[in-house]
Amino acid sequence: MRCRLLALVCVTGSLLSACGMLPGEHERKTVTVWLMKDSASDAFLRRFTADFERSHKDLRLDIRIQQWTGIVDKVRAALKDASGDGPDVIEVGNTQVPLYADGGKLADLTLESMRDWGKDQWLPALAGPGKDANAQYGIPWYAANRVVIYRKDLFEAAGVTRPPRTREEWLADTEKLNSAGNQGIYLAGQDWYTLSGFIWDEGGDLARQKDYRWEGALGTPAALRGMDFYRRLQALGRGPADADEEHPPQAGVFADGRVAQIIAVPGLAQSIVRQNPDLQNKLGFFPVPGKTAARPCTVFTGGSDLVVPSGTKDQFAATAVVGALVGAKWDTELARTMNYVPNKTTLASAVAGEEGVAAMAAGAAHGRATPSTPQWADVEADNPIKEYMSRVLRGADPATEARRASAKITEELAPEV
User: What are phi and psi of 65, to 5 degrees?
Assistant: First the structure.
């Protein structure tokens, strides 16, 4: 008799929920979310999960942390999996979105972007790579970009009373700083992300699309002007011509030597102070100066977008998670917690009290990303821009070397030609 009563309860309850749940409860659907290691703190994720599940009684979050190493292959495999058991929401690097959007493996979130998520206010460097033609696949989450980290004490000793706001001021101040045994700036010869900003600021590009075909564009007058400014700035220090900013790591160079400035993300200051505690409270930040004082230099802006696989079992639930993460409440909370730039220009005031992040936000307002094509990863794999920079810094003709590098870029972007 007891078994029959239990069975009756289960059958009755199943009209509203799964057997074993109390009347009035609803079975929660699980939304699987892949986020990258260190993108958000454990405490932030706990707060977000509790708030989301409290306001979405029918959904449960399963957040799984991923490693950047090997993530491209892992995401591609998940997108190909037709079982429906893969992730429903995935965090990806903003410049990686074209890799995954190719072949129709991502959900088109254009409607939600326009109707609910305020796409007109997104940072261009996050929104641009997430778009293909008129479809929006990648939804901006957070950004980070390079600023100038400087020694306040060395600026004061050289008589530089405030950070420069134009390129010409920057060159003049750096020349003053490049004395008395100090390096005015440490700028490695192959820091191509920084070069990209100078090229964009001049109106040039790394590559341009013409008639559906991508071509290298380092040889244009605008791009050559960007390289010339890089050459003049790099000469005001002792950065190696044949290495990038990680060989050796520039944080260590800055910590060990009398270096007045480097160009890096503000978070690198923590590493600098760990290596040289004497620099505590001596570091400052300012946006990379532009051609005029009206706006900072265009900078390469990295960060993350959120995407939804087209094969998700419940796109409505997945977009609910995306909408919560990229909304003003939790996006500004993430920015404050992790020292990021929020995904919208209108949210920049949320980080105005943090000097380094505020400097990032000023540059990110008109930042750029690498060319939005899946083949750009092939360019970076054996980067001809680095060789081009080294050759020019060693005295080779810039126009000749730019044509050589541009031809290699074109070949990588259109391998069938």
Answer: -85, 135
